[in-house]
Amino acid sequence: MISFASRLVPTSFVRRDALASALSSLRCMSSIPPTMKAAVVREVGDAHALKVENDFPTPQLKPGQVIVKNEYAGINFIDTYHRKGLYPRDLPFVGGQEGGGTVAAVSDEAASQGIKIGDPVAYSVFGSYAQYTAVPAAKLLPVPEGVGLDVATSCVVQGLTAHYLTSSAHADLIKPGEWCLIHGVGGGTCQWAAQMAKLRGFRVIGTCSRGKADVASTLGCDELIVLDEVPGASYEDYESVDIVTRVMEVTDGEGCKAVIDGIGKSTVDISINSLAHRGIFISFGNASGAVPAFPVLRLIGKSAYVTRPKLLDYTVDRAELVSRADEIFGWLKEGKLNVSVDRAFPLDQAAEGHIYLEAGKSKGKVLYKID
Question: Which of 293, 308, 323 is the last residue of a domain?
Answer without folding.
Answer: 308
